[in-house]
Design brief:
Layout: H1 36-45, E1 55-60, H2 66-71, E2 79-84, H3 87-109, E3 124-128, H4 135-138, E4 144-150, H5 168-177, E5 178-188, H6 191-202, E6 207-209, H7 212-216, H8 219-227, H9 229-236, E7 242-248
Parallel strand pairs: 1-2, 1-4, 2-3, 4-5
Antiparallel strand pairs: 5-7, 6-7
Bound molecules: S-adenosylmethionine.
S-adenosylmethionine (SAM) binds near residues 62 and 228.
Length: about 260
């Protein structure tokens, strides 16, 4: 049950500084402490410490975070967030991120340049959430540039299809939080689910399928195939992996 899950009522209410402490904003240097306008502004607008930029990449059903830990050093200036419904798995990702940050900090202090990765894992975190609910509570319209749906649970039986994380209704939520030009990445070893996802995204006015050449040239696709826990398992078992990527097209009335 996810009755104990807590969601912000709107994205502004979310305290991201706990997730990305290295990206926490401070009151801009040079602003006099007694400047009435600026300090009022700051207090009124921010309920909690602010981060310097928004989360841009979401890994939905991130599991143990293989994709996140591989992508973070490849896009060190971008904030990545895994969303995972299982408590223990979420905590594993959070703890692993903290441990890697500490390791990087020690390497940095000891001057071991060769052990440092770009971004030093400060740009990834994980949040426990049921992504079938409240996604727009976490992200503003057009906030995300990439959403990953890697090896989602297939829910084989027809009566369970409503539990699939790709559907007309959920695709509208993905469309809402993605910016025009942003992409949804999907991968699965279940051909039937692949066909289902392609049908649902191609049938949605907010998305167009990305061509094969662009897909194959995208580093994120390689990471998705090779670095996710499920991708590795499928590899070991000699299974097939079906990939499809969809671009968010701008609504005619997008402002
Ligand atoms: N993406 C990872 C990978 O490729 O290795 C994990 C794939 S695993 C088969 C599916 C994951 O989605 C599980 O960790 C499961 O707990 C999570 N999950 C399923 N439904 C979810 C939901 N509604 N919200 C968030 N996570 C969910």
């Amino acid at each position: 049950s996810d009755h104990d899950l807590v969601y912000p009522t709107c994205p502004e209410e979310m305290d991201w500084s706990q997730h990305y402490p290295a990206f926490t904003a401070t009151i801009p240097a040079g602003v006099p402490k007694d400047d009435p306008i600026t300090t009022t502004d700051w207090d009124d607008h921010y309920l909690h410490p602010r981060i310097t930029q928004d989360v841009e990449v979401a890994d939905i059903g991130c599991g143990f975070g293989g994709l996140l830990f591989a992508l973070a050093p490849r896009m060190p200036q971008t904030l990545l967030l895994g969303l995972e419904i299982r408590t223990a798995v979420t905590e594993f990702v959070q703890e692993k991120a903290k441990a890697l940050r500490i390791q990087q900090d020690i390497a940095s202090r000891e001057g071991k340049e060769q052990d440092l990765v770009p971004g030093q894992y400060q740009n990834l975190s994980c949040l426990r959430a049921n992504t079938m609910k409240f996604l727009p509570n976490l992200f503003q319209r057009g906030q995300l540039s990439k959403i990953f749906l890697c090896f989602p649970d297939p829910h084989f039986k027809a009566r369970k299809h409503k539990a699939r994380i790709v559907s007309a209704a959920l695709n509208s939520e993905y469309a809402f939080v993605l910016r025009p030009g942003g992409k949804v990445y999907t991968i699965t070893d279940v051909e039937d689910l692949h066909v289902w996802m392609v049908d649902r995204f191609e049938g949605h006015a907010g998305f167009e399928r990305v061509g094969e050449e662009e897909v194959e040239g995208d580093v994120c696709v390689g990471v998705m195939r090779g670095e996710t826990e499920e991708g590795k398992k499928v590899e070991r078992n000699g299974g097939r992996k079906f990939v499809a990527v969809f671009r968010r097209v701008a609504d005619p009335d997008w402002v």
